[in-house]
Amino acid sequence: MTTHAEFGVRYVVDLEEIAVFFSPRMGPERQRICGQVVPGERVLVLFAGCGPEALQLAAKTEAASVTAVELNPEAVKCARRGLELLARQDPGRAGRVRLIEGDAASAAAGLEQRSFHRVLAPRPKAACEEEDARLAEGFLAGLLPLLRPGGVCHWYDFVADWEFPSCERSTARIQQACAVAGRACGVLRCAAANSKPVAERQYRTVIDFAVDPGLTA
Question: Coiled-coil ranges per the record (predicted)?
Fold first, then answer.
């Protein structure tokens, strides 16, 4: 168990627990997201891991609340310890964070619909292509009702380098899910989430999209 400092915020990371995913390479991406949050936003972080996004959002933005969902109990333990570190510096900011230990899809079903201004959502992956597509579609179907009109989702996916800049497969999946949910979709940005490939010619990408753009609840 160790601590990692990133832009003045400390995380607790279990180095022996391989299921507690944490990547310091995503640090600049976390700062990009923080720079987009406006005061009063309610933000949801799915697959929160040891809590780096939630902790940065609490420490660096004026979000009204940050809800973080994580299934792995070891990762939740790390996130809670990181939150304790933040509370020592600023109890008010730490108090904005709600940690939920549980499955992302089940937790999403229990949250208030159309209540979040922003959702961070890494796409879940499965072993086979058919199950992978079904899992992604189901996950999108579950999170879209949580976004307010005009709300933004930061959808993290994996694509080949030749798919940039349009990332057509991923954006088509998002647009189809929005159509099924009866929500308008506006793709705002598609880019690599960091500069290092995760495998040969494979990058983690982030697609920012708005639902019912131009509307507000």
Answer: none
